[in-house]
Design goal:
The chain has 387 residues and is an alpha/beta fold. 36% of the residues lie in helices and 16% in strands. It has 16 helices and 13 strands.
Length: 387
Amino acid sequence: MNELSVEELRRYHRQMILPEMGLEGQLRLKRGSVLIVGAGGLGGPVALYLAAAGVGRLGLIEDDAVDLSNLQRQILFTTQEVGLPKAELADARLAALNPEIDLEIFRERLTSVNALERFGKYDVIVDCTDNFPTRYLINDAAFFSRKPVVYGAILRFEGQLSVFERDQGPCYRCLFAEPPPPDAAPSCAEAGVLGAVPGVIGALQAAEALKLLLGLGVPGHGKLTLYDALQTQFRNVQIKRRSDCSLCGDHPTITGLIDYEQFCASAGGAISGADGSGQDDVEAAELRRRLLAGETLQLVDVRETWERNRSAIQPSLSIPLGEVGERFKELDPNCEVIVYCQSGSRSARARILLRERGFARVRNLRGGVEAWLQFVQWEKVAPSSNL
């Protein structure tokens, strides 16, 4: 591990001629290790770029099989491989790309039982998952393992990127305090995703992982990078460690790992209504009509402050989801409450929390701010409607 072969010198030449890299940098990569959780739209480009760059040991956790609907964005796989396990296919593809590296493939789900053991053997963890339970498990396991996490997420035409590391800034819980109920947030299967977007975010995740291994540049601690493909725009939003964070705060309440899929399922039950019927959702058109009619409503925005600064429905009160349990007394239980977020997922959880605290008249804005903005824009071009 302290020298490069002639084959490796030729393979990595274009990278090694960078003044910041050189022979020593390439050796650092060879001695380094990265664990990738998920081999889908994000995990594919991450794995390919890290393997190509010469990271000495790559681990990959994936228990799914290839589906035809994956191929629009998951570049590790081909049409002929539909139905086959992703883990074994990724192993073969990465080995063919770079036989100089060591691959460790885990055909399993990440759980509270195996997370600490898996994380303990790697320098950097890359979160390429597509669900909240695993995302929170990764965050917590990395915190206890003292491993940096390169976080990425995508939906529709947008992506997010950050780096979370103990003692180096906020954790994922500082950004989103707790996971929503299962299925409360739309997945790519439900909301869709432009195939190239995970390629963009995955490439950025690979770059952050390489920077961490090399000790180069400024890692993404303390900021959330937002990518908007429709506007060809990148924005950086500063995020800070929360003193009341249940994991990394001054008085943490989380002291071990749990399987958040089970936690979420027990935390609130139905997501579309008290009985799962969806009758407690309010459509953007109805809310607009009632506001114009001057009805007395309490609008509560449960997004984070940085999200609210981009767009908000006014007038409304800002109470981030993680604070609802403490600040519910700011609301009048005798007045109807309309909660909203970006897409309707976190507000579904907020409605449950308020119901548990005695608020009988709580409704959730279906589709959130996204649906509201779409309706308002449509209303401008359809003034003859009866709404």
